[in-house]
C-alpha cells in the first residue's frame, strides 16, 4: 500500500533520495516560479483593464477584489521567492497564497456575474479556473503532490462559489461540475507526467554522479590526484619529472613456497589482507602506491624535502614489516618481507592509449628494486643516499657491500 501511494504521489521509495530531490528541486524551480508569478500578475492587471473598459460599472466590485485581494497575494508570493531562508517552505507558502488568491479571484468573478458581466458561470469563469489549475500543475513548477491537494481545494472553492452563484440550474450545475472535474483531471495528468520526467532525469543524474564519483575514486586509488586532475584536460602521455623522491620496494620472502602450500583462495585471502594493510600504511604516510607485481609492492614518496620523503618511506616500510608479522602470526604462516629503499630523481607519468597505466621510471627505480632483492628476509635495506638523508636523526646503522645485478657493488645500510 505504501509503495502504491508513493507511486501515485511521485515519491522516491528511498526517503534520503526524496529529501535530496526536494532540496534540489526547490532551488531549481524558483526561477520558473518567479516567471510564472510575474506573468500571472501581468495577466491579472490586463483582466482588470479589459473588464474596466468593457464593463465599467459591472466590473467595479470585481476589480476591487482583484486589486486588493488577488494582486497582493500574487505580489506576496513573488516577493517570498527572493527570500532565501523561506525556500524550504516556499512550495507550501505558495500553495496557501494561491488558495487564498484563487478564492479572491472566484469571488470577484461571482460579483461580476451578479453585476451583469461575464463572470463565474460564463466561459470567462472556466478560463480563469483552468488558468489557476495549469498554474499549479504546469506553469509554476510546484511538485505534483503539493499541487494535487492544492488543486483539489481550489476546485472545491470554485464549485462552491458556482453553486452559490444562482445562475445555474441543478442539471446545469452537474454538467458544469463534470467539465470542471474533467479539466482538473487532465491538468493533473499533465502535471504528473511532467514531474515523472523531471524525477527520471534527476534519478539518472544522481546515478551518473555516483558512477562518476566512483570512477574518480578508483582513479585516485590507482593514480595520484595531481595526475587525475591533469587527465581531465589532457590525454596521455603525461610526464612528471620529480627532482628527488624515495622509492620503496617490498617482496614477500618464500612466496613461491606459499603458492604450493596454500590453495588459490587462501593465497589470495592472505595477499588481500597483507596488501590491504600496506595500502593503509601508504595512505597514512601520504605515499603514492604505484603497483603490485605478483608478490612485490612498489611505492614512491615524492617530496620537495628529501629528508621528509625518506622518513615517510622508511616509517611506512616499518609498518609493512609489523603488519606482515602480525598477519603471519594470526594465520600461522611464516611471512617475512625484504624491503629495498633508494632516493634519487625519477620520472612519473601516464602512458597508454586504452588502458592507462601510471608508473615511475629512471635509474632510481631500478636501483631500489635491486636493493630489495639483496635484502635479507625481515630486513629493510637502505641505499647510502637514503641513509644520509636520515642519518642525523637516527645515528649509525650497520652497513655492508652488496652486489646489485646490472649495477655493481654498492654500500647499503640495514634498518
Structure description:
The chain is of the alpha+beta class and 415 residues long. It has 2 domains: 2-214, no CATH class; 237-414, Nucleotide cyclase, GGDEF domain (Alpha-Beta Plaits), CATH 3.30.70.1230. Helices cover 64% and strands 16% of the residues. It is built from 13 helices and 8 strands. Strands 1, 2, 3, 4, 5, 6, 7 and 8 form an 8-stranded mixed beta sheet that branches. It starts with a helix and ends with a strand. The model has no long low-confidence stretch (mean pLDDT 84).
Keywords:
single chain, 415 residues, alpha+beta, Alpha-Beta Plaits, 2 domains, eight-stranded mixed sheet, 13 helices, 64% helix, 16% strand, A/G_cyclase, adenylate cyclase activity, lyase
What layout of secondary structure does this protein have?
Blueprint: H1 2-8, H2 15-54, H3 60-80, H4 90-114, H5 123-139, H6 144-163, H7 170-222, H8 225-231, E1 238-252, H9 255-261, H10 264-284, E2 288-293, E3 296-302, H11 306-331, E4 337-351, E5 357-361, H12 363-374, E6 379-383, H13 384-394, E7 399-404, E8 408-414
Parallel strand pairs: 4-6
Antiparallel strand pairs: 1-3, 1-4, 2-3, 4-5, 6-8, 7-8
Helix pairs in contact: 2-3, 3-4, 4-5, 4-6, 5-6, 5-7, 6-7, 10-11, 11-13
Amino acid at each position: 500500500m505504501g509503495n502504491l501511494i508513493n507511486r501515485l504521489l511521485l515519491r522516491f521509495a528511498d526517503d534520503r533520495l526524496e529529501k535530496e530531490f526536494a532540496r534540489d528541486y526547490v532551488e531549481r524551480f524558483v526561477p520558473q516560479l518567479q516567471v510564472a508569478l510575474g506573468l500571472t500578475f501581468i495577466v491579472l492587471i490586463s483582466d482588470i483593464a479589459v473588464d474596466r473598459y468593457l464593463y465599467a460599472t459591472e466590473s467595479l466590485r470585481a476589480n476591487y477584489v482583484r486589486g486588493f485581494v488577488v494582486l497582493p497575494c500574487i505580489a506576496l508570493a513573488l516577493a517570498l521567492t527572493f527570500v532565501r531562508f523561506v525556500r524550504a517552505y516556499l512550495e507550501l507558502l505558495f500553495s496557501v497564497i494561491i488558495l487564498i488568491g484563487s478564492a479572491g479571484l472566484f469571488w470577484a468573478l461571482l460579483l461580476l456575474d451578479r453585476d451583469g458581466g461575464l463572470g463565474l458561470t460564463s466561459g470567462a469563469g472556466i478560463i480563469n479556473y483552468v488558468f489557476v489549475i495549469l498554474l499549479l500543475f504546469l506553469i509554476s513548477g510546484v511538485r505534483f503532490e503539493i499541487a494535487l491537494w492544492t488543486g483539489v481545494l481550489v476546485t472545491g472553492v470554485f464549485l462552491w462559489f458556482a453553486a452559490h452563484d444562482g445562475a445555474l440550474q441543478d442539471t446545469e450545475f452537474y454538467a458544469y461540475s463534470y467539465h470542471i472535474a474533467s479539466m482538473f483531471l487532465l491538468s493533473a495528468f499533465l502535471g504528473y507526467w511532467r514531474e515523472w520526467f523531471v524525477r527520471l532525469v534527476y534519478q539518472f543524474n544522481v546515478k551518473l554522479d555516483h558512477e562518476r564519483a566512483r570512477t574518480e575514486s578508483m582513479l585516485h586509488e590507482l593514480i595520484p590526484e595531481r595526475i587525475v586532475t591533469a587527465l581531465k584536460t589532457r590525454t596521455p602521455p603525461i610526464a612528471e619529472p620529480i627532482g628527488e623522491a624515495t622509492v620503496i620496494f617490498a617482496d614477500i620472502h618464500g612466496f613461491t613456497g606459499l603458492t604450493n602450500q596454500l590453495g588459490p583462495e587462501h593465497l589470495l585471502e592472505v595477499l588481500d589482507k597483507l596488501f590491504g594493510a600496506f595500502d593503509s600504511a601508504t595512505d597514512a604516510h601520504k605515499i603514492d602506491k604505484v603497483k603490485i607485481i605478483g608478490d612485490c609492492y612498489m611505492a614512491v614518496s615524492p617530496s620537495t624535502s628529501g629528508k621528509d620523503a625518506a622518513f615517510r618511506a622508511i616509517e611506512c616500510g616499518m609498518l609493512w614489516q609489523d603488519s606482515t608479522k602480525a598477519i603471519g602470526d594470526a594465520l600461522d604462516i611464516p611471512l617475512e618481507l625484504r624491503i629495498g629503499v633508494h632516493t634519487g630523481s625519477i620520472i612519473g607519468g601516464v602512458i597508454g592509449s586504452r588502458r592507462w597505466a601510471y608508473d615511475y621510471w629512471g635509474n632510481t627505480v631500478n636501483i631500489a628494486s635491486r636493493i630489495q632483492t639483496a635484502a635479507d628476509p625481515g630486513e629493510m635495506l637502505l641505499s647510502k643516499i637514503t641513509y644520509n638523508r636520515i642519518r642525523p636523526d637516527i645515528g649509525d646503522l650497520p652497513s655492508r657491500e652488496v652486489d646489485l645485478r646490472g649495477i655493481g657493488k654498492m654500500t647499503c645500510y640495514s634498518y
